[in-house]
Amino acid sequence: MEQTEMQAAWGTRIRRLRQRRELTVTRVAEQVGITRRYLYALERGQYAPSVSVQMRIAEALGVEPGEIFSYDLKDAS
């Protein structure tokens, strides 16, 4: 799997989980300790977050990191 495909899959999962929980980008970014711009870029698959950011995103969304940051291309349900 190419890194860009993986990043895109992760971004889709982050966005879907955030929207399901009715959380704004601003709120999640503040909880994670990153900028809104960076979170938007992650949701668009432009970057791969560090492990520490992955952990904080998962915590902010109330899921296990593996639900978002697995290495397959299946979207989070």
Structure description:
The longest helix is centred in the first third of the chain and has 18 residues, at 3-20. The protein has a single domain (3-66), classed as lambda repressor-like DNA-binding domains (434 Repressor (Amino-terminal Domain), Orthogonal Bundle). It is mainly α and 77 residues long. The model has no long low-confidence stretch (mean pLDDT 91). It contains five helices and no strands. Helices cover 64% and strands 0% of the residues.
- N-to-C CA distance: 20 Å
The profile of the biggest β sheet is: none
Question: What's the overall average pLDDT, rounded?
Answer: 91
**Structural class of the secondary structure composition?**
mainly alpha
Give me the CATH fold name.
434 Repressor (Amino-terminal Domain)
In short:
With 77 residues, the chain is an all-alpha fold. The protein has helices at 3-20, 25-32, 36-43, 51-61, 65-68. 64% of the residues lie in helices and 0% in strands.
Topology, element by element:
Elements: H1 3-20, H2 25-32, H3 36-43, H4 51-61, H5 65-68
Keywords:
434 Repressor (Amino-terminal Domain); 64% helix; 77 residues; mainly alpha
